[in-house]
UniProtKB/TrEMBL annotation, chain B:
The keyword Membrane applies. It comes from the Bacteria. GO terms for cellular component: plasma membrane. The keyword Protein transport does not apply. Residues 1-34 are annotated as: Disordered. It is a multi-pass membrane protein. Keywords: Cell membrane, Membrane, Transmembrane, Transmembrane helix, Transport. The lineage of its organism: Bacteria, Bacillati, Actinomycetota, Actinomycetes, Kitasatosporales. It is found in: Cell membrane. Residues 1-17 have a biased composition (Low complexity). The chain crosses the membrane at residues 43-63, 102-121, 133-152, 188-211, 239-259, 294-313. This is ABC transporter permease.
Amino acid sequence: MPAADHPAGPPPSRHPGSPPAASAGPPEKPATGSPKKPKEPQKPEKPPAARSRRSPLRWVRENAVVLAGCAALVYLLLPNLVILLFSFNKPAGRFNYSWQAFSADAWTDPCGVADMCGSLRRSLRIAILATLLTTVFGTLAAFALARYRFRGRSTANALIFLPMAMPEVVMAASLGTLFLNMRVQFGFVTILIAHVMFCLSFVVVAVKARVMSMDPRLEEAARDLYAGPFQTFLRVTLPLAAPGIAAGALLSFALSFDDFIITQFNAGPSTVTFPMFVWGAAQRGVPVQVNVIGSAMFVLAVALVVCGQFVTNRRRKS
Amino acid sequence: MTAAAPPSGLSGPAGAGRQPGSTDGGAPDGAEGAPRRRGLTPYWLLAPAGLWLAVFFVAPLFYQASTSVQSGSLEEGFRVTWQFSHYTDALATYGEHFLRSFGYAATATVLCLLIGYPLAYMIAFRAGRWRNVVLVMVIAPFFTSFLIRTLAWKTILSDGGPVVRALHSLHVLDVTSALGLTGDDRLLATPLAVVCGLTYNFLPFMVLPLYSSLERIDTSLQEAARDLYATPATAFRKVTFPLSLPGVVAGTLLTFIPASGDYINAQLLGSPNEQMVGNAIQKQFLNVLDYPTAAAMSFLLMALILIIVSVYMRKAGTEELV
């Protein structure tokens, strides 16, 4: 294992002379996620002479995990940077694979490509509808699985788990075969059905994990204080489960919006979603606008996450 | 907000028990501690999701099983003839595709583990106040359509591009082409490119479950190991790694299963010589319109994955995943 040759635990505990506060502090901090930095307190306790003598090699040894992790992050984010960079490209031919000249044309005219924005809107519509359906169905099912013991509970658990443990091609081909044999017209509705089918499990798992970790005594307290079952659910249970439901809904939106394999098998020839448009474009020549949409989604989502984090931090402080 | 989504959802199988103590035992406790009308309520709650999955997930699988033993053509219609020739034909024609799929998926899984473990370890123990930022950075690529990101690899690995030139001048390409992984001084349309794309696409599915199991480790156990004079390597091998095994198992499954059925990386980054089972199924279903063969192949794929996964789970010694 790559992480085997560097300190697995926090180094301070090895130095007997280190102040107890420092050795107890760092390991606990990451667990709570509080804004204390674990690395700073370790440095002063090393003898300065030793540090300067073997610092470069030792530093690399001690931070090898961090370096490897950063390299992995670069690997993960490199394509996004390339997409952003090439959204400003002015490609010579139909393909946008090599850098030619700077141009912001695509950003000023994102819908300049035929059919692209139509497919984008279609994808958004499908994703929103699929998210609504999966969130309602999935939350109900999660409550049933988390709160009740009933005959067939493990079967239901397995039924929920199976779609996540199956390659998409298999689900896609089998559902497509069913639609074909039933002579169902392929199109918007078949895509929606397929998306709800494969997103459901993820919502159930997200909500179930949350509901299981909720303290049942809070609801008991509400009932003891003469809240009716409906009032208890609305004022106590639902707000407590909300983060899980929100996580499930976001996940299902992202999965549905980005899905290609299941969509391709269940879309028919005339209904083109955004990923299907990109797939077709990959054969014919990718317009720069595809990079613009990709970068815009990335920047927008990261900005939303950062803002959300910022707001939560401020609320927590005040 | 979005940051919380994939960890809780994707790491589901492993992350289901995030809160120690109130996980699997939590359900019955909750049900008993809060007496509720039993009866039909849970069935009503389960009905919409359960019926949806029964009709659009389970029924198609059975339907597919029957389709795979049919024969006929699109014009004449298909009839069940109990011909198993589709299975034998598929294995004879596409045996190589199956081998390639599992080979690429296994390689990508191992690479994901090697790349993802240090990253998950860094987020869990060394990131400090940057933890949330790094987590967002792991999830951030999801926000761009993965087809666009896979196409970006086409740019990165393009012929005569900086990566190819750098590897060429370092003579790395000579080594890889001697191993049969690349050829003609290019990276695109080689097994290496396909594996690189698979590794990239499924890396977050490895990192998130790994992180969620590493994060739950009590750091005082690691300290205890060090206090008892274990070297860092020994402490890792005997304490940290075994405790993170549930995450390793969940991560490898979440990587291996979708990777073995994927056909996008092979299509965009590979050549006809790198086609995987997914490509063959897609071609049979959408172009050749030979539905029985497509059904037989996806059934074979499912069965083989099931066998591989159950053997692996027995070896890994983790039977409880749901």
